[in-house]
Amino acid sequence: MPAAPLPKDEIENRLRDLPGWTLEGDRISRTYRLPSHFAAAALTVHVARIQDELNHHSDLTLGYNTVALSVNSHDAGGKVTEKDLALAAAVEDVAPGHGAE
Predict the structure, then answer these.
(1) Strand partners for 61
(2) Residues of 49-73 as b/e, b for ≥16 C-beta within 10 angstroms?
(3) Beta carbons of 100 and 34 less than 8 angstroms apart
(4) pLDDT in tens, 59-78
(5) CB atoms within 10 A of CB 74
(6) pLDDT above 90 covers what percent of the chain?
(7) What is the DSSP string of 50-91?
(8) 2 falls in which pLDDT band (50, 70, 90)?
(9) Cα–Cα distance measured from residue 62 to residue 74, given in angstroms and rounded to the nearest whole number
(10) Which residues, in sequence order, are bridge partners of residue 31?
(11) How far apart are CA 86 and CA 91, in angstroms?
């Protein structure tokens, strides 16, 4: 069964609990700054594991000392769903352990 898209006002409300995450069109996004390239690479691997565990994958970009994520749900017509917010929350839980800001 496809995930149900969330209304814009609910997404914006929920993002208040996810500092740094923003709604950009039909996606939620965040860029983390890390202390080094190695730390950024380690966070990228950790995020990839979380995505596999949730069976929900974002666009994930590794920069020199940054990691950027952008996500929506393809099975909901490219809209934001509960699955996207759950992924964002899971990443928020682990990012500080990598020194992410």
Answers:
(1) 68
(2) ebbeeeebebebebeebebbbbbbb
(3) yes
(4) 999 999 999 999 999 999 99
(5) 11
(6) 97
(7) HHHHHT---EEEE-SSEEEEEE-BGGGTSB--HHHHHHHHHH
(8) confident
(9) 22
(10) 68
(11) 9
